[in-house]
Specification:
Layout: H1 4-21, E1 39-43, H2 49-57, E2 62-65, H3 68-77, E3 85-88, H4 97-103, E4 106-110, H5 113-125, E5 133-139, H6 155-163, E6 168-175, H7 183-199, E7 205-208, H8 214-219, E8 224-227, H9 229-232
Parallel strand pairs: 1-2, 1-8, 2-3, 3-4, 4-5, 5-6, 6-7
Helix pairs in contact: 4-5
Length: 239
């Protein structure tokens, strides 16, 4: 049987170790309590609401979903839990933006102007949505044809569009580097993040790193890692 709390504790210990090894976390003392500079996003795609509720009761409040219809069902089932933060992290089709704007507080995968403007418009149309939608731009850092993401040269222009949408808040960048990517890929993401921070005070999030590259991502400035199977068990693939 999966022990969600133990799994969360193990991941948080890995994050802490990675922060210490990279010099991002001062050693713990009784006089100084340093919170982790890297937050954990629990990727709950394909996992049932019951497991998400177990993680919530263990103190995890941020959850990432890739598949909209599945996510909406779980969000509805878990509406009784306060302070749940839902992050959409999958590719976005234009006809899905209305529901994404309605049900999520974060979107990590904005990669083109049309999606940004549609999200902004749907929030304006939805009187129930009281807060700006937090946006990360997905960057195709490894230039893979099979992956979504804005090209490096187009980041600043897309960032300007998002920043000028009154119902969106530009929070940062997200990337999924190719498997076994070298440090140069992570260094480039870190540089792009720092560059974006210089232009926009609201930027504070670099969504980078999963189970296989957590230490590497943390060493290069990640502020949020996305972990799924190490928390919830092996992924159940959709047909």
């Amino acid at each position: 049987m999966i022990n969600i709390k133990d799994n969360l504790d193990k991941i948080k210990a890995q994050i802490q170790q990675a922060c210490q090894q990279s010099g991002r976390l001062i050693p713990y003392t009784e006089q100084v309590k340093q919170s982790l500079p890297v937050s954990l996003l629990a990727v709950s795609k394909t996992k049932p609401a019951a497991l998400i509720e177990q993680a919530y009761l263990a103190g995890q409040h941020d959850f990432g979903e890739n598949y909209l219809q599945e996510a909406v069902e779980k969000i509805t089932q878990l509406a009784h839990l306060p302070e749940l933060n839902w992050h959409f992290i999958g590719p976005i089709q234009a006809n899905k933006t209305k529901q994404i704007a309605r049900y999520f507080s974060w979107v990590h995968s904005v990669d083109r102007e049309k999606i940004a403007r549609r999200l902004n418009q749907h929030i304006q149309d939805d009187n129930c949505h009281n807060t700006p939608l937090n946006i990360c731009l997905q960057v195709n850092i490894s230039n893979e044809e099979s992956k979504s993401g804005v090209a490096i040269d187009d980041i600043l222009s897309l960032a300007d569009i998002v920043n000028n949408c009154d119902k969106l808040t530009l929070r940062g960048l997200m990337a999924v580097p190719e498997k076994n990517a070298g440090n140069d890929c992570y260094e480039k993401m870190q540089q792009l993040f720092i560059q974006l921070q210089k232009h926009y005070p609201s930027v504070d999030t670099l969504s980078l790193g999963m189970s296989n590259d957590l230490p590497q991502a943390v060493a290069h400035g990640s502020t949020m890692v996305r972990i799924g199977s190490a928390i919830f068990g092996a992924r159940t693939y959709k047909n």
